[in-house]
Amino acid sequence: MSLALDPAAQxxxxxxxxxxxxxxxxxxxxxxxxxxxxxxxxxxxxxxxSPLRVTLVRTPEARERLVGHMAEGNQPKTSTAPLVAIxxxxxxxxxxxxxxMPHAPGIKDAFFSERPVREQTAGLNAALQxxxxxxxxxxxxxxxxxxxxxxxxxxxxxxLDDDHTPLMVVNIGRxxxxxxxxxxxxxxxxxxxxxx
Length: 196
Fold this sequence. Notes:
- By secondary structure, the protein is an alpha+beta fold.
- It is 41% helix and 15% strand.
- It contains 9 helices and 4 strands, in the order H-H-E-H-H-E-H-H-H-E-H-E-H.
- Strands 1-2-4-3 form a 4-stranded antiparallel β-sheet.
- The model has no long low-confidence stretch (mean pLDDT 95).
């Protein structure tokens, strides 16, 4: 059985793609980031809520502040990656629903009037979008280094606000020397897939 996606694209996006730990100093341009977003914005979310927010850390001052919140083993990677993105969930995503769901004008109040409901669904759907974001980085021919080893509350206070929940920090760029750890095993089909 074959997939519709070209085998080279399968390798680029999945089989040969790895979490990078070192990067070259080649910059990641605004045009590349725009192209990534223009591709991944079509990923599905419930009610088209699109709660993912991306904060690009470009200035040396901001980078230094972020590195201070990273786990010790992640600090060198974040210090040297050409671009770092903080991915977060916007817990006030419902304010955009009239634009995103014009055919269902009452959906904002019918489903998302309570903050705990918004936080739960924003976290789940933004995580889904974050996965698409990583695939988009790979589609651009770049490597992504997603990390959850950081002080979440510190990053929220330093870069976000009370309406945004950090999900991960992603280092982005061309892979550098010794960028990859050995690939870890994966579960087999039978260990994951169950038919009922």
